[in-house]
Design goal:
Shape: flat
Distance between the termini: 56 Å
Number of strands: 0
Largest sheet: none
Radius of gyration: 21 Å
Helix content: 55-70%
Length: 62
């Protein structure tokens, strides 16, 4: 069962809000952007399980 397409007015409101938010984020100073990125990385690291296996095996010198 497919969902109905949102009304045009709803889509325009969403796009407008996204455009406004993106422009506000683009005006942020670099230090603030980096601080936000580091905070997100800390949250991501805390959420991931501690017993995770490495994604890739380290290279061995042969």
């Amino acid at each position: 069962m497919s969902r109905a397409r949102p009304l045009d007015e709803t889509l325009k409101a969403i796009w407008s809000a996204k455009r406004k938010r993106r422009s506000a984020l683009a005006r942020l100073p670099l230090k603030v952007k980096i601080r936000q990125l580091i905070e997100l990385q800390k949250i991501d690291w805390a959420v991931k399980p501690k017993n995770r296996k490495p994604r890739f095996r380290p290279w061995t010198s042969a």
